Amino acid sequence: MKRSIVVTGGAGFIGSHVVRLLVNKYPEYRIINLDKLTYAGNLANLKDIEDKPNYRFVKADICDFETVCALLQEEKVDGIIHLAAESHVDRSIKDPFTFARTNVMGTLSLLQAAKLYWEPQGWKVGDVPCRFYHISTDEVYGALQMTDPEGIEPPFTTKASSGKHHLAYGSEFFTEGTKYQPHSPYSAAKASSDHFVRAFHDTYGMPTVVTNCSNNYGPYQFPEKLIPLFINNIRHRKPLPVYGKGENVRDWLYVEDHARAIDLIFHEGKVADTYNIGGFNEWKNIDIIRVLINTVDRLLGRPEGADMDLITYVTDRAGHDLRYAIDSSKLQRELGWEPSLQFEEGIEKTVRWYLDNQAWMDNVTSGDYQKYYEEMYKGR
Ligand code: NAD
Ligand code: TYD
Hints:
Blueprint: E1 4-8, H1 13-25, E2 30-35, E3 55-59, H2 65-74, E4 79-82, H3 89-94, H4 96-118, E5 124-125, E6 128-129, E7 131-137, E8 156-159, E9 165-168, H5 185-204, E10 208-213, E11 215-217, H6 226-235, E12 240-243, E13 249-254, H7 255-268, E14 274-277, E15 282-284, H8 285-299, E16 311-314, H9 329-335, H10 343-356, H11 358-366, H12 372-377
Parallel strand pairs: 1-2, 1-4, 2-3, 4-7, 7-10, 10-14, 11-13, 12-16
Antiparallel strand pairs: 5-6, 8-9, 13-15
Helix pairs in contact: 1-7, 2-4, 4-5, 6-8, 8-10
Thymidine-5'-diphosphate (TYD) binds at residues 89, 215, 225-226, 229, 241-243, 248, 250, 285, 317.
């Protein structure tokens, strides 16, 4: 079946992996990357596929309702995979309005445009059933405690509902039924957008699906987020600002595993359903930071651990969520998805990628990446 799919936010970190996967895997599909190119959008992330015949880039704001409506009609779009968002918690603390505008109003603009185009055709384009797939985060669920019912010092081994054992820092996990309790302006805006998506299903019958994923890591992540920022700082022997005591726990997933899950759920997920995506891979920030230091040092031929003194404890992030931990057993059970990489392998691969792609990093930190669109897309 031929499909025409808009991926929003395809020039960002996760979006670029999703676009690459879809463009390469489905030459018969048309993949349209709709992205405003904010500071977080970087078309150099997609250099390797930008000339493929089944790919088109459109520079536009999801809040620009008229443009979105026109694009859906022009391209006869039957699927939307919605990743465009403001995504950094620290920025949301300083500038919550931008987060409400893009994450809430932008999502509503896309939903309304899709409804106007799809509803009169019975939620089909030709004979292809439509789908609105909204990518969300585990942060909407709030924070979990670090507790152990048997009084063992965490991390301890726990058994997920999938039946597998893994290390955990608490006995509770976010499931698809966990109530929403966002704490940051970022997660509050994402939570609101999730509610709008579900409301469009319940009110109008739009075929929607929502996924909530844990922290991603891997190539092409903007170096304001913990892992790429710290790899770059260690390389340049700059201080590593650890918020609070570095005791906060995140559940990390390699970005290509997330992209594979998105592909699977877009095609096979149940309409109106929600799936949690995560790696059963909990780490304290400070432990990850030590792994990053050891790995960068080793790969650069420095004595392993030589850069531990770069660790600098700074004032904690306001409202800093203590622990995130996703139970992704529903996705594993129902659709057979599993993370493909162990964290140790994924981190090694990621550190190598950033060290081998210093030109990409320099282009981002200098701001030169923002000229890419004008230089490469002028006259297209
Ligand atoms: P990112 O910040 O790297 O990329 C966001 C992209 O959206 C950029 O290309 C940016 O230009 C684009 N964008 C922003 N505002 C726009 C607008 N108004 N119109 C059109 N495009 C716009 O983000 P990311 O880390 O790749 O996250 C992508 C999605 O996945 C987000 O919805 C985020 O909430 C979700 N998510 C991220 C993580 C994570 O760990 N990064 C985890 C779970 C869920
Ligand atoms: P981040 O990558 O911003 O993702 P999120 O806030 O969405 O989880 O941060 C990951 C963790 O690292 C989080 O607990 C905050 C912490 N952190 C630091 O300690 N120092 C930093 O400079 C950054 C960016 C994050």
